[in-house]
Amino acid sequence: MKILLAPDSFKGSASSLEIARWMEQGVRRVVPDAEVVKLPVADGGEGTVEAFCEAAGGQLLPVPVTGPLGKRVTARCAILPDGTGVIEMAQASGLTLVEKDRRDPMVTTTRGTGELMQFLLDKGCRNFLLGIGGSATNDGGAGMAQALGVRLLDADGKELGPGGGELARLVRIDRSGMDVRWKQCRVLVASDVTNPLCGPQGASAVYGPQKGATPEMVRILDANLANLARVVRQECGLEIASVPGAGAAGGLGAGLLAFCQAEIRPGVDTVLDAVHLEAHLAGADLVLTGEGAMDAQSLFGKCPVGVARRCKAFGAIPVVALVGGIGPGVGGVHGVGIDAVFSLVNRPMSLGEAIAEVQNLTIDATEQILRLFLIGKNRGQV
């Protein structure tokens, strides 16, 4: 029996790789000799680098870089066997790197993400895949660009400082110091965010508050990103403000479009293509996927639904989702390929208790799913 394990992370609790490993333990309680393929997945956010390394056998590299508030942090990136460099911007510029009482998108920077990119360029990478979920920033990718050698200048020819608050001063862009090797590179951005750069649905208005922005900060940051778009149009001849996804990661999507000629693609599909999901589906009897919570919102670009859709397009492979919580509208996932949804919670408990016990809960729930699956299989119903 071949069983494919393709969970997303349980955010705030466990990575996709940890969930896949615990699922395997549950499977082997019931079918010790099963062929188990672990293919942890991600949508461009938390766990993207780890998922790629597990699926493709890449080299995981720790790199000291500039964190969101300027303090050095160690971020992990990866080089896949085909030479592709994989970056999870949250490792260098993520919200989880900033204490709640210090979150301030006026000053947080994406410089560390750019430093990761330059590190991988120096390692020989020319194809890049960036997951840009979970940012602490709202600087339009300015810090990233500066790390790549772009000079962002004010009216006096002085370099801008870090953070989205500085973009009001921007009047000129000097790209002469940018490494010429970037012209040889292809940069794919994995993001399910389709927000434009500015306006009511833009980066500042929609995502700024969760990064610490007050209503007044949102107004300033939105105007500053609009200034960035205006100067990019003037200096580089590119229109970035209205491109879907330009507002991802506090406008990092826009910065990557402007300075790296990036392509923004749906996060789940980009990841599933890169890990060659269909190749692993051949001969599979069952696919187990999962995420921290499943509800009506799971239909919009979440990993388990992306996995299920591809399973059904490939063939009639049963797909079961194991999740932490089940919310309103979850029945909609059955129409897109998830045959059943199970919660790992096995008794009344608090969220804190569930997080503390996630390993054993995942193992136990997976065991019960397999036992139920075998009942149907032995009766010729699956």
SSE layout and pairing:
Elements lengths: L1 E4 L10 H15 L4 E4 L9 H9 L2 E8 L5 E8 L5 E4 H5 L17 H12 L4 E5 L10 H6 L3 E3 L18 E3 L11 E5 L12 H5 L7 H22 L11 H13 L2 E3 L1 H8 L2 H5 L4 E9 L8 H12 L4 E8 L13 E4 L7 H6 L1 H21 L4
Parallel strand pairs: 1-2, 1-11, 5-6, 6-9, 9-10, 11-12, 12-13
Antiparallel strand pairs: 3-4, 4-5, 7-8
Helix pairs in contact: 1-13
Describe the protein.
It is elongated and about 75 Å long. The chain has helices at 16-30, 48-56, 89-93, 111-122, 142-147, 203-207, 215-236, 248-260, 267-274, 277-281, 303-314, 351-356, 358-378, and strands at 2-5, 35-38, 59-66, 72-79, 85-88, 127-131, 151-153, 172-174, 186-190, 263-265, 286-294, 319-326, 340-343. It contains 13 helices and 13 strands. Strands 3-4-5-6-9-10 form a 6-stranded mixed sheet, sandwiched between helices. A 5-stranded parallel sheet has the order 2-1-11-12-13, with helices on both faces. The protein has a two-stranded antiparallel sheet with strand order 7-8. It folds into 2 domains: 2-41 and 275-378, Glycerate kinase, domain 1 (Rossmann fold, 3-Layer(aba) Sandwich); 48-268, Glycerate kinase, domain 2 (Alpha-Beta Complex). Helix 1 crosses helix 13. With 382 residues, the protein is α/β, with parallel strands linked by helices.
